[in-house]
Design a protein that fits this description.
- The chain is an alpha+beta fold and 228 residues long.
- Strand 4, helix 4 and strand 5 form a beta-alpha-beta unit.
- The chain is globular, with a radius of gyration of 19 Å.
């Protein structure tokens, strides 16, 4: 699923990978993934008051849309996070592979301790769909902050609770992802365990984790880790 951005917001400027190397402190493994997993990055749209006629909010003056073309089928989340950390405004990623595309974005906010830095949360994503599918209209919004929030809530894999802020939703999703990974780890240990008493203990831990997952998600929904 991709959004239909206004033509007047089109930017269409390729960004050399070296620019991200300069702006972000990349580990050798992430830098290697930039080369092996990503073919091209294009700054496709600039959503700003002058391009989409929506007023800025206190925290968000602009939203950037980056198109990322993959060499293979997936991209490591660390690559997107490195790009996000190098740009001082929220980013909506359009990720392309073969003839498919998806939208990926993380809740991103200015750091409370350092106004020049941004905090990047876990990534939300849409399902893969044909890249030439009809695009979805942007949500109606009064300001940039509202637009950003509605886009992210559209991508969120879990339903928001009444009066739950976007940050609270993002935080709950992060805990939920961790619990899913914990369940996978415990289940693998349970299958490999031979001692009966230890199997009983592990089974109890699996059930406890499943109860926590159910409470966090309000359902038995499987959480899929973004970008895999």
């Amino acid at each position: 699923m991709l959004f239909a951005y206004p033509s007047q917001a089109a930017f269409n400027r390729p960004i050399p990978k070296a620019k991200f190397y300069e702006r972000a402190k990349l580990s050798p493994s992430v830098k290697a993934r930039f080369v092996s997993e990503m073919s091209q990055v294009v700054w496709s749209y600039k959503l700003a008051p002058e391009t989409i006629n929506i007023t800025p909010s206190e925290a968000i003056q602009e939203i950037q849309v980056f198109s990322v073309t993959l060499k293979g089928d997936s991209i490591d989340e660390g690559v997107l996070r490195a790009i996000d950390r190098s740009i001082p405004s929220p980013i909506i990623f359009e990720v392309y592979r073969a003839k498919e595309a998806r939208t990926v974005a993380a809740f991103k906010r200015p750091s409370e301790s350092d106004s020049a830095s941004w905090v990047v949360a876990d990534y939300f994503q849409s399902a893969w769909s044909p890249s030439d599918s009809d695009r979805r209209s942007l949500p109606l919004a009064l300001n940039m902050g509202s637009l950003y929030e509605q886009i992210l809530r559209t991508l969120a894999p879990i339903e928001g609770r009444p009066d739950e802020s976007l940050q609270a939703l993002s935080d709950r999703y992060a805990v939920l992802r961790a619990k899913h990974l914990e369940r996978e780890r415990l289940t693998a240990k349970l299958k490999a365990e031979k001692q009966f008493n230890r199997k009983v203990e592990l089974n109890a831990l699996v059930r406890q984790t499943e109860a926590e997952i159910s409470d966090l998600s309000d359902s038995e929904q499987q959480i899929i880790i973004p970008t895999e």
